[in-house]
Structures are given as structure tokens and as C-alpha cells.
């Protein structure tokens, strides 16, 4: 196990420390504005052209003060840097609060706007998280604007792509931790090693890789067979730059699998230097707060209604409420021998229908 690579967003850390899942991470949806309309975006149906007021920042900070074991916060959207006023007056104070409290921070951004926006928040950001699933300009144009209502020209897309790459390099050169996420899907699974090389050239310190599970706005995208997913991970492990941290998440491979190929891959991932596998934080150690409505949700499970609202509820209490939800109990398993807390609902529904992971044991 790569213990030197600390990943405070991984729910296995708090599960092992406290003996149960507890709330250590809060994610904030701070905007529904975005200058892109990506094919794979799971929140594409929430994106708007104009948005209303946010709940008072004081309410947000009060609720964070009440979270007993808070370790990380994430800021997401939309594109959080799109509205310069909100960036200055809402997001920066939220990040400054986290810095004062010693809480790790991540911003999910496409880095396609002017560099100054990102330089402004860099002192308060532990992880600049971007998505990169492209083999160049045409790929970026095709994928990044697949769901745009108005046609976006190739030249415009080229400029945005190049600005993203340049911003990533400049931030990395200035000492920022830039982490690029790629999704293994029907477009990328055979090209994932080439995408990795591009990410390394951008100066990213970490490459995150997640299989894509079609959900919500992206629910119509093709499902990749599990064998193709396994082959893509093997291909990437063979070709990767071993000096760069590789973080895999939401993998559908488990030590309790009856498939030897799955167990062999799990063993390889554990033995590879600079490689970690993250359990899914959503609903395990993290909740999402919508800063417009105040609604609190378990983000990956789009069919689950809000579990409460920050106007009335403490976040720790809402998390406890979620732990007794029938859907949460359905995948609430933990295997100390494998250091695994099982699949999330998307993984279970996609590849393991009618499988009760709570009755399985690791085959070591």
C-alpha cells in the first residue's frame, strides 16, 4: 500500500479511524454556470444561462463550524471561476475559512478562463482538479461542446483548450497541485495511455482515472463492458509515467470477485508504486450542499431526494440520517482484509445487479 500518498478524500481513512463512516468532507455546488457543455457531464441538466442569489455565506460557515470531524471541502459547479464576482465574494472567503481551520481544499474547474482567476485562489487551494479526456483540439471540440445549444466553432474550442493547457502548466510551475481526471469510456479506453502522456506534459502532479458510469444528464452514453475497463487499466499501468501519482476511483473490481483477472488487477494496483485506489466519498464520508437552495444531497445518487437543508439542519445530523437510508445500507460493506468499502450504487447497478456484497469475503 502506498501510505506516503495521502488522500484525505478517501473514505477508507475515516472508516478505519472511527470504525464507521462519518462526515469528514463537504462539497459545495457554487454555480450552475459553465462555458462548456461536455458530453459526459453528469450535471448538465442543471446548467443555466443566468442564476439567482446564493444562500448567505454566514449560513454555510456556521454549518461547517458544526461539522466535528471536517477534513476536506470541495468546490464544484458548473465552472466555479465563471462569475468573477462570486469567485471574489463567495468562493474565496469559503476557501479562506478552510485554510484557517486546516481543512484541505479542492476546486473542480476546466481552467479555460483567464489565468488571473486561478492565481487569485491558488494560495487557498490544495488540489486544482480538471477533466482531461482528449487527444487534441478536435477531440476537445467534439466532447467539450457536445451538448451546447448554440454551435461553438473549432477555433474557439482550440483557444480554450490551449488556455487550459497553458494555465495548468503555469499553475504547476508556480507550485500548485494540478490533478487531471480522465474517464474510461467508449471514446477513451483504447487511448488512455496517450491521454496520460498529454497530462504528464501539462505538468499535472496526479492523474485520476475513473470508469464512466452513465448517469443523470449523461445517462444515454454507451456502457463499456467490464473486460474493456480491465484492459484499459492494465494498458495504462503498463505505459504510465511512474513518477506521477496515479489515483484510480470507483473501479468495479474487488478482492471478493470470483474472477481471477479482477483479483490479479487488485493485487497489481496495491503493489504498483505511486498508485492508490480511492473508495467513493459520496455518501460514505461526504455530502453536497447546493449554495442556491441550501439542499443537502448525496451527490452520486441522483435518484435520492435531498436529505435536508442547511437552513434547518446540522450536517452531521443529516449524515447520520443518511446512514439509515435503505439505499445506503444496500452497499454498506467493509472488508478490513482488502481495505475496501465496496461499490457505490452506480457500480453495483451497472455491473453487479442482485449481488449482496455484504455476504462476500475477500479471496486472498
Structural summary, described in words:
The chain is an alpha/beta fold. It is built from 12 helices and 11 strands. It has helices spanning 11-18, 57-66, 84-101, 115-121, 137-144, 154-173, 192-201, 226-239, 260-271, 315-323, 326-330, 345-351, and strands spanning 25-29, 72-76, 104-108, 127-131, 178-184, 206-211, 245-249, 275-278, 286-290, 295-297, 308-309. It has an 11-stranded mixed beta sheet. Helix 3 links the parallel strand 2 and strand 3. Helix 5 crosses helix 6. It is globular and about 55 Å long.
Question: What is the secondary structure topology, with strand pairs?
Answer:
Layout: H1 11-18, E1 25-29, H2 57-66, E2 72-76, H3 84-101, E3 104-108, H4 115-121, E4 127-131, H5 137-144, H6 154-173, E5 178-184, H7 192-201, E6 206-211, H8 226-239, E7 245-249, H9 260-271, E8 275-278, E9 286-290, E10 295-297, E11 308-309, H10 315-323, H11 326-330, H12 345-351
Parallel strand pairs: 1-2, 1-9, 2-3, 3-4, 4-5, 5-6, 6-7, 7-8
Antiparallel strand pairs: 9-10, 10-11
Amino acid at each position: 500500500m502506498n501510505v506516503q500518498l495521502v488522500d484525505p478524500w478517501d473514505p477508507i481513512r475515516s472508516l478505519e479511524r472511527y470504525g464507521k463512516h462519518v462526515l469528514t468532507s463537504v462539497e459545495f455546488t457554487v454555480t450552475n454556470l459553465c462555458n462548456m457543455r461536455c458530453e459526459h457531464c453528469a450535471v448538465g441538466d442543471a446548467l443555466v444561462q443566468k442564476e439567482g442569489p446564493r444562500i448567505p455565506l454566514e449560513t454555510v460557515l456556521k454549518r461547517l463550524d458544526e461539522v466535528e470531524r471536517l477534513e476536506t471541502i470541495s468546490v464544484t459547479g458548473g465552472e466555479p471561476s465563471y462569475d468573477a464576482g462570486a469567485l471574489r465574494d463567495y468562493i474565496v472567503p469559503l476557501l479562506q475559512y478552510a485554510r484557517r481551520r486546516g481543512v484541505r481544499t479542492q476546486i473542480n474547474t476546466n481552467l479555460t478562463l483567464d489565468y488571473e482567476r486561478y492565481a487569485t485562489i491558488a494560495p487557498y487551494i490544495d488540489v486544482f482538479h480538471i477533466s482531461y479526456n482528449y487527444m487534441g483540439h478536435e477531440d476537445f471540440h467534439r466532447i467539450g461542446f457536445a451538448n451546447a445549444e448554440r454551435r461553438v466553432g473549432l477555433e474557439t474550442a482550440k483557444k480554450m483548450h490551449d488556455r487550459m493547457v497553458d494555465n495548468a502548466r503555469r499553475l504547476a510551475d508556480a507550485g500548485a497541485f494540478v490533478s487531471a481526471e480522465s474517464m474510461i469510456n467508449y471514446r477513451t479506453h483504447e487511448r488512455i495511455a496517450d491521454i496520460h502522456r498529454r497530462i504528464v506534459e501539462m505538468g499535472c502532479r496526479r492523474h485520476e482515472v475513473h470508469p464512466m458510469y452513465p448517469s443523470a444528464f449523461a445517462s444515454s452514453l454507451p456502457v463499456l463492458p467490464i473486460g474493456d475497463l480491465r484492459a484499459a487499466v492494465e494498458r495504462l499501468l503498463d505505459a504510465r509515467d511512474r513518477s506521477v501519482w496515479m489515483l484510480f476511483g470507483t473501479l468495479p473490481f474487488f478482492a471478493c470477485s470470483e474472477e481471477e483477472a479482477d483479483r490479479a488487477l487488485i493485487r497489481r494496483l496495491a503493489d504498483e508504486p505511486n498508485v492508490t485506489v480511492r473508495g467513493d466519498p459520496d455518501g460514505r464520508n461526504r455530502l453536497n450542499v447546493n449554495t442556491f437552495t441550501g439542499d443537502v444531497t448525496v451527490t452520486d445518487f441522483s435518484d435520492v431526494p435531498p436529505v435536508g437543508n442547511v437552513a434547518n439542519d446540522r450536517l452531521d445530523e443529516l449524515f447520520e440520517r443518511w446512514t439509515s437510508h435503505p439505499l445506503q445500507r444496500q452497499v454498506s460493506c467493509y472488508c478490513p482484509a482488502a481495505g475496501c468499502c465496496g461499490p457505490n450504487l452506480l457500480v453495483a447497478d451497472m455491473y453487479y445487479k442482485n449481488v449482496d456484497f455484504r455476504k462476500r469475503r475477500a479471496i486472498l
